[in-house]
Amino acid sequence: MATDIVILAAGKGTRMKSSLPKVLHCLAGRPLLQHVVDAARTVDDASILVVTGHGAEQVRLSVRGDNLRYIEQTDQLGTAHAVLQAAPLLHSNGITLILYGDVPLISAETIAQMLHKVSDRSMSLLTVLLADPAGYGRIVRDENGLVEAIVEQKDASEAQLQISEVNTGVLALPSKCLQEWLPQIGNENAQGEYYLTDIISIARSAGFRVETLHPESAEEVEGVNNRLQLNNLERYYQRRQAAKLMAEGNTLADSARVDVRGTLQTGTDNFIDINAIFEGDVVLGSNIKIGPNCLIINSAIGDGVEIKANSVIEESQIGKNAVIGPFARLRSGTVLADEVKVGNFVETKKVNVGKGSKINHLSYVGDAELGENVNVGAGTITCNYDGVNKHKTTIGDNAFIGSNTALVAPVTVGNNATVGAGSTINKDVPDNELGLTRATQRIISDWKRPSKKG
Ligand code: UD1
Ligand code: CA
């Protein structure tokens, strides 16, 4: 059956005190709305309709996905009015699920269960029991315990305010019912808004059963209205990521000081020290040690690698048993074979480094191809940029590059070749030869250091 998922995201989010639309604020590096869209996309063949209002254009440009369409709600007249904007686009023979752009942690399982409970005589409603239900719509049940209505805080009687079961806002029902019932909702209430929650009493009058469901945790249905709530959800999310990493066989120095902003796949027996940040898609093998304060973005790291403190690794691939850092910066397109060493204050970019090669200190190596067992001395720079174009440096197996060498690309240093320290190499060095551009040292015996005048 066709499934339509309508995500309400028109609100301004005044309490965020931000020029950015609320649903574009990030949780774990992804906009809130993107989390909801990604959860919605777990439903096979669902069409996703996002109702935008404030910052509609910016929202449209920032959040993407297959089968995703945007509808604008120019004036925000209430949740029923928001869904009404999407109503003409729904597949009348299917089911519609309503989600919220500022409730980011809704799970795929809950969504599946919500859809599962809908039939042509029943709708589903996600509710939660809260110790402090203030502000939420209360779930009113009849003497048989069946849901009768939802009453908003501002419209509730003293007795209704005591009810601790509240509406999360998430509901699902046959699309044709939604299309038929929405226009019946009025705005005669304390807020003068069109309440989607009125759909419940309409459904009841039509002989529908309202099936309720609880989320696995209250955080799953928590909305973000201000930055404190955003941070609370971020920390909840990160605690769960940390628990997952540990369950998968990784040791964390401090489970409160690791952040995963994307997907992190791991083998086992990795040790992750404090303040590690993983962004985008990162894959770790097994038996890896990651030192303190490392940032790893969209990279794959092989078994047995050691990444020492304060290293930044972006869009790189690192072979087995390599040793990186401390203070190394691997930029995009860095591909290191097994057992490579990249030491402190080394920057690499778009480079292939063969097995066992070493770039141990203070170097910039970019647009380069290095063979196996190359030794790059301290202070070596590949001069890859002539101010307009980038050029390549090629270094053969077993080559030895002396310290403080400038390799002016395009240039090739052959297999087994040597470059003397302090050279500026702008012509190829053949296999097995020594390239040297250093001026001959002179000794000046009668030279005196200047002395202070006056
Ligand atoms: C709503 C529910 C309430 C529930 C609570 C859960 C109604 C009438 N009430 O109340 O029962 O307990 O959510 O958080 O539905 N939105 C639009 N267009 C609009 C109005 C709202 O897109 O015209 C969006 C908002 O951006 C927000 C969501 O819908 O993401 C909920 O709207 P909000 O005004 O916050 O509803 P609540 O008063 O919190
Ligand atoms: Ca709200």
Folded structure, characterized:
- The chain is an alpha/beta fold and 454 residues long.
- The protein has two domains: 219 residues, Spore Coat Polysaccharide Biosynthesis Protein SpsA, Chain A, CATH 3.90.550; 209 residues, Hexapeptide repeat proteins (UDP N-Acetylglucosamine Acyltransferase, domain 1), CATH 2.160.10.10.
- Helix content is 16%, strand content 33%.
- It is built from eight helices and 35 strands.
- It has an eight-stranded parallel beta barrel with strand order 15-17-20-23-25-24-21-18.
- The site of uridine-diphosphate-N-acetylglucosamine (UD1) has 28 residues, from strand 1, helix 3 and strand 10.
TL;DR?
With 454 residues, the chain is α/β, with parallel strands linked by helices.
* CATH class value of the largest domain: Alpha Beta
- CATH topology of the largest domain: the name is Spore Coat Polysaccharide Biosynthesis Protein SpsA, Chain A
Q: What is bound: which ligands? A: uridine-diphosphate-N-acetylglucosamine, calcium ion
Q: What is the share of helical residues?
A: 10-25%
**Second CATH tier, the architecture of the largest domain:** Alpha-Beta Complex
Can you tell me the number of structural domains? 2
Report the biggest beta sheet as strand number plus sense, adding barrel if it closes.
8 strands, parallel, barrel
Principal-axis shape equals: elongated
Strand content: 25-35%
**Total number of beta strands:** 35
Cross-sheet strand order for the largest sheet: 15-17-20-23-25-24-21-18
Number of helices: 8
The Cα radius of gyration reads 31 Å
Distance between the ends: 97 Å
Whole-number mean pLDDT: 97
